[in-house]
Each structure stands twice: as C-alpha cells, then as structure tokens.
Amino acid sequence: MYITELELKNFRNYKELTIQFDKNVNIIVGRNAQGKTNLIEAVFLSSIGRSFRTSHDSDLIRFGQEEAFVRVKAEKEVIDTKVEIKINRHHKKSIQKDGNTVHRTSQLIDNIIIVIFSPDDLKIVKEEPEKRRKFIDRELAQIKPAYYDCLSNYKKTLQQRNACLKEDYVEPSLLSLWDEQMIIYGSDIIRMRKDFIDRINEYSSRIHRGITNRSEDLSLQYDPNIRFCETKEEQQEVYRKELMKSAASDLRMRTTTRGPQKDDLQFFVNGVNARSFGSQGQQRTCALSLKLAELDFIREETGEKGILLLDDVMSELDESRRDYLVKTLHENQLFITTTDIDPGILEYYPQARIIEIEKGECVNLEKPANL
C-alpha cells in the first residue's frame, strides 16, 4: 500500500498543490512554519477522515476561504483507490471514496492505513490516561470496523446514562436500560483492547530490544477499570456486578464512575514504570517502539504494509535510534518531515524523493541543494 498523489486546494496555508510521491521514501524539508506538517496532515486525513492535530474541521480551511479540498490517490494491491474530502465552514464535511459518498467515517476503515509518529506522541507515555486510551481507540478503530461501531455505541450510551444521572429524579428502569447497553458494549471493548495490547506488547518488546541494542526490556500492561475475563459471559457478569456496586456513588456524583472510559495502559522498562521513573529519552523510545509495533499489528491483521508518517522526530532521536529506524522500515512507504536532511538517511535511501516546502509551496528536487 502506498500513496501516489496528493491534491490540495485552500488547505491550511496551501492555496493549490498537486504532488506525486515516491512509493518508498519521501523527505519533506523546510524551515519551521512553512507547511511541512500541514502536508502530512492532509495525507493522514484520507485515512480516518479526521485530523491528528485538531477536532475543528474549520481550522483546516485556508484563512479567508470558505472551503478546503483534499484528494489522495493510493495504490493497494495493484488496485487504485481515491479519497476526496471537502470541508466547508458552513456545511458538514463531505467525503467520497472511489466516487461513492461516505456517510460514516467507519467506511474508510482498512482503506488507506496510516501510522503517524510525532513529538506529541511522547504524551502517550508521560501524560494522563486519556492520551493512552485515545491511542488505543484510534489504532483499533482504523482497522477493525467492529471496534469502531462498539466504541461509538458505548460513547452514546455513556452520554445517555450520564444525562440520566444528572436528573433530579433518576428513573430506575431507564438507568437499568442504559446499564445493560453499557455491559454489552463495554465488555466487548475490554476484550478487544486486551487482545490488542497483548499483541502490541509482543511486537513492541522485540522492537525495543533492537532499538536499545538489548540494553532495555519494554513491557506493556493493560490496566482495565473493570477486570478482564476470559469469556464474554463472565466479562458481562463481572461488569454487571461492578455497576451495581458503584450505583450509589454514581447517583451521588451524577456521573458513571466505572467502565472502559477509565482504562489505562502502563509502560515498564526493565521492570520500572516508565511514566513515573523513566527518563525523557526512555519515554521517547517507548513511544517509538509502540508506533513501530503498530505497523506489525497492521500487517498481521490486514496483510497490508501501513504507511508511516514521521513528523519532525528524526532530530529528537540519537544516531543509533535513527539508524535503526531507517534500516528497518524499507518495506513501508515513509514520509519524513525535517528542517535538515540527515545524510545518513540519504545514504540508506539514495532514491528518496526530496520535497522542499516554503510558504505553502513546494519544489521537487533530485537531492537537497546543500548535499
């Protein structure tokens, strides 16, 4: 799987742009605030129909304009695919895939699969549990329609249950209705998350040993708010009991206190909690191992080689970690944004496409002018 072409109109700081990509390595170079990240943001948009930087679609429209347009063409197993997105300040975003209207973003699942690694991903390891849940949800929802649907239904049910709890009088039968819905969807979420983390743990542990030259062992631990059970029936029964136990506190606090919306993911390096005691370098390596493990998970789950976007992270890694990165990703299409090109990357990828960005415009070069 690889992206062949990107077309933009009034997207961020781009007035109009059409560019073809190399199927292996694309290095996007330029000074800060020129539009490098905007370019890969548009690429990412084609994957799940949402930005990785903002939840407000209007932010994607060029200043002073009413509508932005993004078209991404890709090749998947020798079959061409195309995603077109129109974002209007006053109307709902419209998406088409291969000429057909996309009514739900879940219709984009497993179409163009993209993994992004940026400096913000350090937050997955070092900040609040919400960041880690968001990571799990985004990666699972991107390739598993069943998870996407289950998560969407759970969020709607949770919202309804919380609204019910905020009423001055809570109707027991109505609360019971929401409880049963939460038990069904929540139990499935817990079980799918557990399977995902177990598999990602296997991949990331191997990758982490390689990155650190076997000096560190990484272990991931799923920390569900409601205990994981081996069978679906047992999981639902445990979930039901936990909701019953928390009923009084839920009524008092007027919110749902138990469920997967409280889950967490723990990182351990050589047996030590990386969030609490790891150095920033160790935390960054944990995040990198996690992101590379996604590619292995995607390949095993879908048979496809995911596309990797590396947004301004090469300068954050030491030489050994950069070397590991470029030498192990030769089977995936890469997009690398940077202010300066590392000669080591060009040495390993001499045919890489260099895209120079300046003020929302790009110039394609055979190689950077300073080499």
Descriptive account of the structure:
- With 371 residues, this protein is α/β, with parallel strands linked by helices.
- It folds into two domains: 1-113 and 304-371, P-loop containing nucleotide triphosphate hydrolases (Rossmann fold, 3-Layer(aba) Sandwich); 121-301, Up-down Bundle (Glutathione S-transferase Yfyf (Class Pi), Chain A, domain 2).
- The chain is 43% helix and 24% strand.
- It contains eleven helices and 15 strands.
- It has helices at residues 36-48, 122-126, 129-143, 145-165, 172-211, 232-245, 247-253, 274-277, 280-302, 319-328, 343-348; strands at 2-11, 14-20, 25-29, 67-76, 79-88, 94-97, 100-102, 114-117, 218-223, 264-269, 272-273, 307-311, 334-338, 353-358, 361-365.
- A six-stranded antiparallel β-sheet has the order 2-1-4-5-6-7, with helices on one face.
- Helix 10 (319-328) links the parallel strand 12 and strand 13 (334-338).
- Helix 3 (129-143) crosses helix 4 and helix 5 packs across helix 6 (232-245).
- The longest helix has 40 residues, at 172-211.
- The chain starts with a strand and ends in a 6-residue tail after the last strand.
- The relative contact order is 0.16.
- The model is unreliable at 367-371 (pLDDT under 50).
